[in-house]
Amino acid sequence: MTGVIVSIINGLLLGAIYGLAAIGLTLIFGVMKVINLAHGAMIALGMFALYLLVSWLGINPYLAVPVVGVGGFLMGFCIYWIAVHRVIGRAELMSLLATFAVSMIIVGVGTVLWSTSPYNVQVDMPGLSIGRYTIPGNHIVAAVVAILVAVALYLFLYYTRLGKAIRAVASNRQASELMGIPSTRVLAIAFGIGIGIAAVAGSLIATLFPFTILSGASYELKSFVVTVLGGLGNPAGALLGGLLLGLIEGSVSPFVSVSWTPVIEFSLFVVILILFPAGLFRVGRGR
Amino acid sequence: MNRLALSLLVSASLVSAPAMTYAKDIVIGFTTSETGKLNADSAPQMQGFELWRDQVNAKGGIKVGGDKYPVKFVKYDDQSTSGRVQQLYVRLVTQDNADFLFSPYSSGLTATAAIISEQYGKVMITTGAAEGKTYELGNQHLFQTYTPANLYLASALDAVKAKAPKSKIALIYENGGFAKAVATGAKAYADKLGLNVVIDEAYDASTTDFSPILNKVVSSGADVLIGGGHFADGSTLARQLREQNMKLKMISLLVAPDVPKFAGLGSAAYGVSVPSQWESDASYTPDFGPTAAQFTKDYENRFHVHPGYHAAGGYASGLILQHAIEQAGSLDTDKVTAQLNKMDATTFYGHIRFANDESRHGLQVGHDMVLAQWQKKGGELEKEVVWPEAAGTAPLMFPISQ
Prior knowledge:
heterodimer; A: ABC transporter involved in vitamin B12 uptake, BtuC; 2 strands; 2% strand; globular; B: alpha/beta; Rossmann fold
């Protein structure tokens, strides 16, 4: 029984990080209706940014996380103007292809620079012992940081002028323009925040698992699942969706071979899609 | 007048033709995984190939009859995918006119390449590919350098039997051709030894979170863990065993701990053992080619890193092919195949002999494996040969001291 509880706790801790990764994706979709296919590549870049900061500057990985976040924001801001701005409001395939192209460029450059060999960020953190089981300390810290970032984003969106402007643009771009909100600049900032959050999620994942420039792909897939579970364009739902995904993984894995976990996970996902097409945690406004 | 000039020109070319010699390269084609999940495992194998080629060419090439032919490689990046391997091996044979082939890295990719090499009747020396199933398909031109997969964990299980026969063993392995073949062989061997395997579970090759499996290992009360797959998953598994503070008497993982980068895991590498096709301390007396010490020195001088068995396997493949060509005195596929069939020789890499019977033609039946373990010497991690005890450079640390 202790094994099952530990497994569920492990699942929830990872779920918080899945949730954070998905928030970046869902924020961008919610505000500008762009499905960002460069999301996984940005998660991977966040992993490498943390690795480089830690190995070059020798700083504590957790102190490097905010730096990665700021770097991700600036990069996202630039990507918006270069690749996304001109395709906003046009056919969805255009933005899909634009962000896919960005992804291919990042993965290609990353492969040349770092090959596809796995990299590690060493984090020595005492774990929490429960009987014979141990919950690794780095998992606990990463989950706490993920939740703090998610809460900070929530407070930013609901209690700051800029956050409210982002929500206004998400709700109705034309009306917000009429209210004097510079919607293009707001979109660029929102895209930057989405990418910054993806990079932070990547940097937190890098403290847990080895990674390559291709590692973002699996987290991108999980982000899509979590986003759909939580309701497209709903950041709070994304965090809950992430926790739910982690809970499913943690609850299922003690009872079946690990190869069956994704089968059960995705079967449940299809059932949820059929029963709740708008997502499980569809609250408040948004599309 | 024009006709006269033309006849003179033709005559001149005919007269001068025998005097002109065209150096023929021996073209060896193969793919490596420069990108994709097998990159870390494939890179040292490629370095082994390169060292062999450059040493051969520095001496003028491979001796064929009275002439020496330089070795030329034609290689491509297979991106660790079998689809690319299929396309590229066809290209190597049909467009690049490869005389001989080396295998890609890994059993899975080699199984794909073997279909092409056999279809076009090309000799392919396989390295980095231990799964034995490929040799049960009636292939006539395929020759394996590695000890077959089903024997990989035999030495680890022998050690468990000798040290603590009542141990509870967790068999945790990658869900791929090679690791599954190893696990099947290990399970059968454990049963034969009367050992108790309490968990037998496969995981996906892309697994990064081993917590669910490790929780099961704790629940089962297992005190020995054997398995793994390749570098990416094996190094992750070792790291998480450490993070989860698993109290295991023995950890023996495939492939990963033999890649020099594994030592970068620090304390997570300590005590982990690996079934190894070759270790630099091996003291075989070679019938041809360098000694282990000479190979190790040359490799370190060239690549500034200590060679593992992937590198040695790469070099040995070249050496085996070279010896067969020299013995045949020809580049003819049938003659070289005949020489490989009757090869029974010792190299720096160990004994080499290929099965000749129809049911498993080309399977490696001469080569033995050892068990190596990461131990600490003067505070530094060093890999020691620990099993069989007679061949060991240090005693097996059992249980792993915390």
